[in-house]
Amino acid sequence: MKLKQYQVDAFARRAFEGNPAAVCPLDGWLDDALLQAIAEENNLSETAFFVATGEGFTLRWFTPVAEVDLCGHATLASAHVIFEIMGHAKPVITFATRSGDLRVQRQGSLLEMDFPSTPAAPCAIPAALLAGLGRQPLEVLAADDYLAIFASEAEIRTIRPDPGCLSQLDRRGVIVSAPGIEVDFVSRFFAPKYGILEDPVTGSAHCVLTPYWAGRLGRNTLSARQVSKRGGNLGCSLQGDRVLLSGSAITVMETEICFSP
Q1: Cα-flanking dihedrals φ and ψ of residue 37, to 5°?
Q2: pTM for this model (two decimals)
Q3: pLDDT tens for residues 16-38?
Q4: pLDDT of residue 260
Q5: pLDDT tens digits, one per residue of 166-195
Q6: Which end of the chain is more exposed for a tag (fewer CB within 10 A), N or C?
Q7: Strand pairing category for 19-26 and 2-10
Q8: What residues contact 37, with CB distance under 8 A and at least 6 apart?
Q9: How many CB atoms lie within 10 A of CB 154?
Q10: Active-site residues: which are they?
C-alpha cells in the first residue's frame, strides 16, 4: 500500500523555519493504530490526516505518541496542501475536528485560521512546573496547558526545560511568554508528555496567549513570535470567543509511504 505524504513548514516565510508537519490526504480512514504508527515513524511534532467529506474535510492530528484535540500548525499545513497542491477552488476550507468546525481562508499571501479562544485562569504554581522551568514566573495560569508569564523576552529565550519534571504535570504542556521586543509578545511551548520537548511554533497555544495578551495590552489585534530555535511569526486577533491566527506555509517535501496493510 502507498500513501502520498507532504512535509510542510507552517508559520514559515521560507523553507527550514517555522514548524514542520507531515500531511497525509486519505481516501478513507485507516485503523487508528496505523495512523499512530505513521506519526511515530515521521517523528515530527504532528502528523495530520484528512478525508474529504461532502462540504469540507475531516481532520485529525497525531503526535509521535498520541492523538490530540487541536493543532494549529498542522491545520495550517493541511490547508496549504488543499489549496496549493490539490487546487481547492473555494475561498474557505471547513475542517470537522475533535475541537469542532475549524475554518481556514486565504488572506492575500497568508492563510487565516478561525479557532476557539481558550482563556486561561490564574492557578497555584505546581512544584513540578517550577522545577521544570528552573525559575520563578511572575504569574501562572491554566487552560489545557499551563501558561507561565515572565518579564522579558531574554528570560524566555534562556529557559532550559527539564522534560522529566514537566512530564509530571497534569496538563498537556507548558507555554512560557513575555512581552516582545519587535512583536507584542513572544513565547515557547514544551510538551514532553506528548513526545515534544519543544514545539517550534504552536498555533493552539496562541488560542490561550491571544486572550491573555489582548486583555493585558488592551487591544485585540496582536503580533507574535515563537522564539524556538526555528522560530515563526503569527498574526493574532481576538474576535469574541474566537481567535484568528494567520501565517504562511511552504512545502518542503513530497513522499510516498509504502507498507503492507
Answers
A1: -65, -40
A2: 0.91
A3: 999 999 999 999 999 999 999 99
A4: 85
A5: 999 999 999 999 999 999 999 999 999 998
A6: C
A7: antiparallel
A8: none
A9: 11
A10: 46
What is the CB-side half-sphere exposure of residue 154 using CA atoms within 13 A? 0
Element (H, E) at 184: none
As a whole number of angstroms, the distance between CA 81 and CA 76 comes to: 9
Q: What is the mean pLDDT of residues 194-214?
A: 95
Cβ–Cβ contacts within 10 Å for residue 101, how many? 11
The secondary structure element, H or E, covering residue 186 is: strand 185-191
Q: What are phi and psi of 235, to 5 degrees?
A: -95, 135
pLDDT confidence bin for 261, thresholds 50/70/90: confident
Whole-number Å distance between alpha carbons of 211 and 226: 16
Q: Which distant-in-sequence residues (6+ apart) come within 8 Å of 89 by Cβ?
A: none
What does the DSSP 8-state code read for residue 230? S
Q: Which amino acid is at 67?
A: E
* Helix, strand or coil, per DSSP, at residue 157: helix
Cell numbers found for residue 124:
497555584
How many residues are there in the chain?
A: 261
Sign of the alpha-carbon dihedral angle for 96, 99, 105, 110: negative
Instruction: List, in order of start, the domains of the chain with CATH numbers.
Output: 2-112+247-258 (3.10.310.10), 121-240 (3.10.310.10)
Count Cβ atoms within 10 A of the Cβ of residue 143 and give its class: 0-12 exposed, 13-18 middle, 19 or more buried. buried
Contact in structure between 136 and 173 (CB atoms under 8 Å):
no
| Amino acid at the residue 6 | Y
Q: Which DSSP category does 193 fall into?
A: G
